[in-house]
Amino acid sequence: MSDKITSxxxxxxLLETDDTAFAIADKSQKIVWYNLAFKKKFKNLDLDxxxxxxxxxxxxxxxxxxxxNNPFLVQTKKNKTAEISKIKFDSKDFIFKIKLSDKENxxxxxxxxxxxxxVQFVKELHNILTLLIKESSLQKLSGEILTKCxxxxxxxxxxxxxxxxxxxxxxxxxxxxxxxxxxxxxxxGAEIETNLSFLNKWxxxxxxxxxxxxxxxYLASGLxxxxxxxxxxxxxxxxxxxxIATIITGRTKNNxxxxxxxxxxxxxxxxxxxITSIKTRELNTALETRLLQxxxxxxxxxxxxxxxxxxxxLLSSIFGSVNLLRKRVPENEGVIKLIDxxxxxxxxxxxxxxxxxxxGKPTPRRKELIKPNILLNEISKVVxxxxxxxxxxxxxxxDDLFEILGNGTEIYQVLLNLCVNAKEAIEKTGTITFxxxxxxxxxxxxxxxxxxxxxxxxxxxxxxxGSGIEEENLLKIFDPYFSTKTKDTGSGLGLYVTYGIIKxxxxxxxxxxxxxxxxxxxxxxxxxxxxxxKIPEEEKIILLAEDEVMLSDLLSELLESTxxxxxxxYNGTEVLKVLTxxxxxxxxxxxxxxxxxxxxxxxxxxxxxxxxxxxxLSTGSMSISDNHDLKKIGISAFVTKPYEFDQLLETxxxxx
Length: 656
What we know:
This protein has 656 residues and is of the alpha+beta class. It has four domains: 14-110, PAS domain (Beta-Lactamase, 2-Layer Sandwich), CATH 3.30.450; 111-358, Beta-Lactamase (2-Layer Sandwich); 368-526, Heat Shock Protein 90 (2-Layer Sandwich), CATH 3.30.565.10; 540-655, Rossmann fold (3-Layer(aba) Sandwich). Helices cover 45% and strands 21% of the residues. The protein has 20 helices and 22 strands. Strand 4 (81-88) and strand 5 form a beta hairpin. The chain is elongated, with a radius of gyration of 40 Å.
């Protein structure tokens, strides 16, 4: 008997003095015994009859009972790791053994409670991904992600801060505050934004979570105090090197475990994927819509262009007949009135035809170097002087806008038309914002402007606070004769012609609108990049065949100023006559519409003479290249009228 007592005392003594921290708890989960090493770990805590749930974080009695005979891992409120085992003596009696361990020595243990949390996380992840397939609202999805994040990390509150730098807007927030910790959050928003202005630099540099506590040595201590928390976690949502949002979670009591911080980081990664996925989905939808719209307008343009040419011929006959009538009929008031009516209707038909032509054949009539600052200031003066004083007109024009090459009158027409539309969309009082700024499209921002080629652009914008445009009408606003106005106030050709002019300048137009909130038109026109003109090393002779004398003289002067010798003729017969003489010609430029012989027939006869000099065909019609195999005929290049002189010079230099 004494041997048993001695061995028992020795065992107790051994456990008491062992370096490993041990404790025993009874069925009610209260500590009944602990050794010296265990006591040292909790110097300032009275351990006698202390419940396990008051020592260990996030530990409930039910979780302990569910553990059965398997050891599981928990963390103390001082972030020490412990292994808890249930030891059974019989079917009813059992105790709990608590063993404190260093983190390095617990790698092979089975963390039952952590497994349960991971299972819950995977379950919630599956639910959110399922919701992402069905739901397209970022607000709903981010709210759901934040709710799950708060729940699984045992946080008191959570905030999502969206970075809107690219849209030049302030941060926007999503808040869930189950503990009603944050009062007057609207006022806190500005202070949170101020704190994040420097905390974001840390998050962008280190790309991991930042812990903040109510202690001055912590970088985020100011934000922690502002949010009335003991500890906060800031987890950046980063996708392809873009910091698109930050999840901030906080607790009013206790600190976060490593597992909980990891859980928050995984939710941050999920949020970044969600935001990017929704934006990509919206972009794909927008691109698909724009592509369909572009294809439809291109088809309409081709049809309208062909019709407009036929109408032009008919109108020419009508105008000629009207002139003859005026000379031949007696000066009778009733007859003159009828002739005037015919002429006025013909003039209106001619103007409509010009609109169709400018859309169907996207080439500005005459190009010049435009200084957008002067143009925008002129439009601003007109708007301020003529628009009702009840409208608040706000011009924001950047200094030194890039110069653009195009038709100044047409660009003026486009922007003024958009301002007039903005005015008509506003009932009584409202605001029109008129802006112009430079933008450079490159790999960094190409995703925001997918239809623009890399390069420099001038970005014109007209924004109103009017009635807006219904979503179903957004796809129709550039259609010919479509208008939301009454028949007496609009022809429906305004935006139709506007689109044609913008495309003629190699530009793009984007529209965004919400009913009762307003509409924004963004117009992008490429800047002028001067072509480096190469002076020919040796004298080259160009034979120019153009029946329009003024245009022939202008083009000849341009070519001679760049070092070419120009020989002018006015029809195809003269071309063949020159070429059959002994004069050597290095290039021929043929107008398609010439008397006696058109440009295509002339080119065929030149090739029959076995002459191999380059031939350039010029025409005012886009359909020539569709009706003829120009390459087979022997035509080296095809240019449209009116001439884009830089492009023509570049073509000549390539061929010579």
